[in-house]
Amino acid sequence: xxxxxxxxxxxxxxxxxxxxxxxxxxxxxxRISSQDLSELMKVTASQIRQDFNNFGGFGQQGYGYNVxxxxxxxxxxxGLDRRHNFIIIGAGNLGQALGNYINxxxxxxxxxxxxxxxxxxxxxxxxxxxxxxxENLELFLRENDIDIAVLTIPKAGAVEVAEKLVxxxxxxxxxxxxxxLNVPKGIQVENVHLSDSLMKLSYNxxxxxxxxxxx
Amino acid sequence: xxxxxxxxxxxxxxxxxxxxxxxxxxxxxxRISSQDLSELMKVTASQIRQDFNNFGGFGQQGYGYNVxxxxxxxxxxxGLDRRHNFIIIGAGNLGQALGNYINxxxxxxxxxxxxxxxxxxxxxxxxxxxxxxxENLELFLRENDIDIAVLTIPKAGAVEVAEKLVxxxxxxxxxxxxxxLNVPKGIQVENVHLSDSLMKLSYNxxxxxxxxxxx
Lengths: 215, 215
Known about the structure:
Two copies of one chain form a homodimer.
Chain A: H1 8-26, E1 31-32, H2 34-41, H3 45-53, E2 65-66, H4 67-77, E3 84-89, H5 93-99, H6 103-106, E4 109-116, E5 125-126, E6 129-133, H7 137-143, E7 148-151, H8 155-167, E8 172-175, E9 188-191, H9 194-214
Helix pairs in contact in A: 1-4, 2-3
């Protein structure tokens, strides 16, 4: 994957900082040193400083970080100060789970529509959003300002659906289908391949067992 | 995170190789060169060779890789030649989605039990597995050989439940709760923080928009 400027590895760590800072903020904590943040998050203080230096630092040496300021700045970097409308394609259990997750709303991700090719699901309501037929997808995209499409469908139809989404102005796909999508430059894709994650867990179980056998 | 030997980044790429090789195998393809695999997977041939060299190579120079052999070997490295029994804690939409996912079974992950603290869900059946009360969890773990617990509960109870799981012999947790678990050494945890993934997508949308504005 090509990257400009800041690496995706650093970007991948920002949501975790954001989560911890949000919790500190909720607990009423106003300042935190990189050392204390390091102990809390179990990463080195030097990594924290290096990560933050990518964005100009944030900190005042010796005074630690202002929690709320840092939380808001990282939120802005993550684009959470903008509102993102999203739709879900695939109204199965996973699609419903994501549609029902109200925390997305708190972060500015607004659930606008849900589509499924199964006629039995048509009309079903998830948090006030009715499941629509896939035939309505293009018209809906033309009439609504949708940034993100969540793909929770089997891999068989995913590539074709992704093409249709992109043709109709969707600029980002959160892909849970177990296939790599081939989208034009400028279209953002974030893959959540659940099986891959489970296999990684399985590898780590095996490795640990082998280590124990060798002791 | 501490790693022994092979880095988690390399391990993280193995499931994707496994997926592509499985598809090639299903298409009846017997051999593939690292160059062709590279084009298919959109990674460099040198990365493929480097990754495979961590496990002793696999390939015959000039003849390419034997697809089925490579598929089986990577499967073994991933521990997919062993059977893993798993339970799901949290029978909401996400838990149900994972319980219903039959592909896990094909990979040797066997769905054995499901637990929820909501009495209204008790007795509900997901693929022949009845949802049990959390009160039955410890007894169930003592009487069954469970490797993996999937945590699909809100973050509030997750740390406490994880402790109980570990005390009763669970050696791996697939954690969807939006909190970092603090488990003893030797217990494997794989986190799927869905909000983090969505924020990364949001970052990439913002970055792309800013790039476009600056052109």
